[in-house]
Amino acid sequence: MTRSFYIYFKEIFHKPTRQEWDILKLAEPRFEKEYTYSVFLTHFIVYSLLFVPPFADFRWDILPYLLGVTIIRFVLLLQFYTKSISLEKVIYLSGIIADGLVYIVFIKGIQSFPSIGNFYLLNSYLMSFIIPILLYSTRLNPFGCVLSAIYFSIFHFSYILNLPIELQNQTSLFSQYFLIIVYWGSALLGVVFVFNKRKDTADVYSLSEEKRFMLQELELAKKVQDALFPGNIKIPNLTFTFYRKSPNVIGGDFFDFVQLREGNVGVFLTDVAGHGISSAMVASIMKVLVSTIPYRFKTAPARLMDYLDDRLTQDLNRYHASAIYLFFDFIEKKLTIGNAGHPYLILAKKGEEFQELETQGAILGFNIKVPPISEKTLPIAQGDRFFIYTDGLIESMDHQGNCLGTEGLLDLLNRHKHCENVKELETQLLDELKTKYGLDTFSDDTMFLILEVEE
Q: What is the number of helices (H) and of strands (E) in the chain?
């Protein structure tokens, strides 16, 4: 426990570095404003003296002193905005004058009604002077707390010297001077507050700078990742549209086209486990792997998935991903599918309803090969539509806590199966997701890709 306190006080009382001084200088005006407003508002407490004994009996005599306090505090408030004189000097000078005027009121009170009861009553009132002392701790300069303890000690010495002789004889030295101990104790506490505030201010600023730097890096990473996605490219014999959304700036959902000889094309979509930077980097690595994979794998989805599984296991054994690969062979008019633990392909033959095509295969990155990735082949024709997606879409919940689910997605697709093109279909899907299902935002990385076979 003792060591913990030692470490704590060592941290807050350490000498600020040059960078921390710069931070404190930047933050100082905000705390000076906080002090100025606080001391202006709290000084009105002194007007309560007009209604309590013994001051209520001669309130008109002490009112000019209290008005003087208000004028001094108002000058400080104005000075904060004009800054024609050093604000720090005005803070200290106004504090000495204003608090001195209130102490004069107490001297007049004890001299006008010198009784032992009033002496202890006024002592209890004087305890409230810990408020202006602690108000100095709202600033970033600990000297204010020390200075206030000094001048309050001087004021109190003057107060004791002006006590009637009979009261000096009837009261102990401790009862006369214990308030000085209270003032210095409050000042010490205020100094600790100030140093702690300095440390917190420097820490918060440093964290905000780190956050700003990280956001800049994330924005750059997002631009890099965006550049990896297919842009406004023309894919022979296919029209497509896609939607992607991440709760973070970047995410682990990714797709790409693999253009092959004879006009054939592969479509690769992956969902890397996790969120944020690490999953986005793994997704980028997956793109590079698919782009540079031997040609013979690009026409064989199962072999492509096995290759990616081996590479993920060997090179990135802490990560895993689901993936789906569609190989469109437009010469033989067929589609070959390989699925590695990914949501099933949803397809609709021209004029027919959307339905799932069940495929099996183990997730990538574990090298378990169970169940093995099996290929499924089906014929394709003009007007056939294909919908592939990541599970963030069906796992998102509406405002009632209900998941969209696969059945909900199929119902949604079939309600809009008559859309003339894939772009219109995407628009209708997103509109209904936002209005009926309340899915303005998704809790997980979310992506879907709609494809249609052209002539």
A: 15, 10
CB 35 within 8 A of CB 136: yes
- Average pLDDT over the chain reads 87
Looking at domain 229-453, what is its CATH homologous superfamily?
A: PPM-type phosphatase domain (3.60.40.10)
The residue ranking higher by pLDDT, 220 or 93, is 93
Contact present, 188 and 148 (Cβ < 8 Å): no
Residue 398 corresponds to which tokens in the numbers above? Answer: 């509406």
Residues 422, 373 contacting (CB under 8 angstroms): no
- Cis ω for the linkage preceding 54 (within 30 of 0): yes
CA-CA distance, 311 to 315, in Å (whole number)? 6
pLDDT, position 116: 95
Condensed to tens digits (0 to 9), the pLDDT of residues 125-163 reads 999 999 999 999 999 888 999 999 999 999 999 999 999
pLDDT score of 80 more than 90 = no
The string of DSSP letters for 396-442 reads: -B-TTS-B-HHHHHHHHHHHTTT-SSHHHHHHHHHHHHHHTS--SS-
Angle at 276 between CA 249 and CA 345, to 5 degrees: 95
In this prediction, residue 8 carries a pLDDT of 47
* φ and ψ of 41, to 5 deg: -70, -40
Residue 404: how many other CB atoms lie within 10 Å: 19
Amino acid at 330: F
Listed range (48-57, 79-88, 94-103, 252-261) with the worst mean pLDDT: 79-88
pLDDT tens digits, 257-285:
998 878 899 999 999 887 777 888 888 88
Residue 362, phi then psi, degrees to nearest 5? -75, 150
The encoded tokens of residue 113 equal 């009604």
What is the token pair recorded at 74?
A: 């108002």
346 three-class SS: strand
What is the side-by-side strand order in the sheet with 446-453? 238-245, 446-453, 385-389, 345-348, 355-357
Q: CA 168: distance to chain centroid?
A: 60
Contact yes or no for 343/359 (Cβ under 8 A): no
Q: Where are the domains of the chain?
A: 2-211, 229-453
What is the Cα 266 distance to its own chain's centre?
A: 40
